[in-house]
Amino acid sequence: MIFYAGGxxxxxxxxxxxxxxxxxxxxxxxxxxxxxxxxxxxxxxYSPLLLANAWMKSADMTEDKIKxxxxxxxxxxxxxxxFFLAMLLQVLVIHQFHLGSILMDEPDFNDPNGxxxxxLNNFMELYGDRFRTFGHGAFHxxxxxxxxxxxxxxxxxxxxxLGARYILINAGYWIVSLALMGGIIxxxx
Length: 189
Fold this sequence. Notes:
Blueprint: H1 10-18, H2 28-34, H3 37-45, H4 52-58, H5 63-67, H6 71-93, H7 99-103, H8 115-127, H9 134-159, H10 164-188
Helix pairs in contact: 3-10, 6-10, 9-10
């Protein structure tokens, strides 16, 4: 499966797929593995060993609420949503994903011998592995946590009248989770 991003028409996308131009393939096993990370981090982060008591107090959570939850549904949906995050992170941590969408409107893009395709292939041959490390992916994961997850959590918490402790606990969890996910995706995709 190829990744496509951009505001191009469906006809253009169909041509793109039919010509089998694959710059970077989606590595579903790596994404599936990275989608487990929020579950693993959460099992430690929200455990009595670390922040369970502080989180329960800040979220106005009780043992009765926890016991009455459908944990299979919660864990299942958490995995599905974490997979969605992995799909997004892949584009944020691997810069080479953007090249095809930048050049897609060039007239000779679908010509395997055209200047655009030859230039793109040469570029990928020379630079396709740049910034493909765990550290680089973790950096972008932290960046995503700070500048996306934190504001979203904070805005919701403000309207729900939840305090700074709640925001910091949950944002911290996502910053750590996204850093690990980003690192794995960048290194192994």
